[in-house]
């Protein structure tokens, strides 16, 4: 009898209904691309089903092995702590099921190619005649309390800058890390470029992406001499779906190895020495499955957990006092 394998797509979760809808569309892509497996999905916080519900659904379908894939771009606290805690707790309670945990999407040639296409979409809507040498690209990350994850945004920006031939590139973050988008744009306009393209390096929409757009609109109003373009986020670009399929394959092949060279929990990274060896534990009990804005019938505005459980959508604060993303 053939082994029955399940795939668990683990999402962050959001209060934003549009973000949950887009994640569900991605999960549907995986179901179509992986007909040989049972596929379920769940969220760390706010939205339902929660991750345990998805894992239990796979168990009820009689799978003997579960391949758990983080539905996230970079490995910060959620990928390094919260998701492993959820997965390990389920595995401990179900020793007869072989549960394996994959790696985040990370910096990947497919994602860079998808990013290029998203940026080109924005360029196609801009004024004619503006060359890339006269354009500044701003790549915006979620922002975490993990310097390794934040530094990945700088690498993505540099690779797109060189690969696409922009005149300059800057990075900014939607919360927790510095500079925030509004601060970054105020500095960027001083460099004198005719056009600034703001590219949210995000998988899905949500309160944070909408905030990035608001900041961009405000900068455009304040600086009419500069053309501001808002590039679409990655969403369910076919190359993004391909990357998730690759991550599943890595788990099957036993090749899912996370990059730990600059992990603040394993190495004494400058400024984060106290984080080494921190206990792995989940941190989303208070918001697990409590619902989205649609469930509560009101808008929480900018107070959201989308980017980490210590940031909560407020302005930048020094992050060396926090141990987890």
TrEMBL record:
GO terms for molecular function: lyase activity; metal ion binding. Pfam families: CbiX (PF01903). InterPro entries: CbiX-like, Sirohydro_Cobaltochel/CbiX. Residues 308-325 have a biased composition (Basic residues). Residues 293-307 have a biased composition (Basic and acidic residues). Keywords: Lyase, Metal-binding. Transmembrane segments: none annotated. Residues 292-325 are annotated as: Disordered. This is Sirohydrochlorin cobaltochelatase. It comes from Paramagnetospirillum marisnigri.
């Amino acid at each position: 009898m053939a082994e029955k394998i399940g795939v668990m797509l683990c999402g962050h979760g959001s209060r934003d209904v549009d973000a949950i809808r887009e994640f569900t569309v991605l999960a549907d892509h995986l179901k179509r691309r992986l007909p040989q497996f049972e596929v379920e999905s769940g969220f760390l916080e706010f939205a339902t089903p929660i991750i345990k519900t998805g894992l239990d659904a796979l168990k009820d379908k009689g799978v003997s092995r579960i391949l758990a894939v983080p539905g996230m771009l970079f490995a910060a606290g959620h990928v390094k702590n919260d998701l492993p805690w959820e997965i390990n707790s389920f595995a401990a309670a179900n020793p007869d099921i072989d549960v394996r945990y994959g790696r985040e999407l990370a910096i990947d040639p497919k994602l860079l190619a998808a990013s290029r296409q998203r940026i080109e979409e924005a360029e196609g809507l801009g004024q004619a005649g503006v060359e890339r040498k006269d354009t500044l690209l701003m790549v915006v990350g979620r922002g975490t309390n993990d310097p390794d994850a934040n530094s990945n945004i700088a690498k993505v920006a540099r690779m797109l800058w060189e690969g696409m031939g922009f005149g300059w590139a800057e990075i900014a973050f939607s919360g927790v890390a510095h500079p925030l988008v509004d601060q970054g744009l105020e500095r960027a306009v001083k460099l004198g470029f005719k056009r600034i393209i703001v590219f949210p390096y995000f998988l899905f929409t949500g309160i944070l992406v909408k905030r990035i757009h608001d900041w961009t609109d405000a900068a455009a109003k304040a600086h009419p001499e500069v053309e501001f373009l808002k590039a679409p986020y990655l969403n369910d670009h076919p190359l993004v779906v391909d990357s998730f399929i690759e991550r599943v394959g890595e788990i099957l092949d036993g090749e899912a190895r996370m990059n730990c060279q600059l992990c603040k929990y394993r190495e004494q990274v400058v400024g984060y020495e106290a984080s080494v060896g921190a206990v792995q534990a989940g941190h989303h009990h208070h918001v697990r499955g409590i619902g989205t804005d649609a469930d509560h019938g009101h808008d929480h505005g900018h107070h959201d957990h989308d980017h980490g459980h210590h940031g909560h959508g407020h302005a930048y604060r020094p992050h060396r006092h926090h141990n987890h993303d």
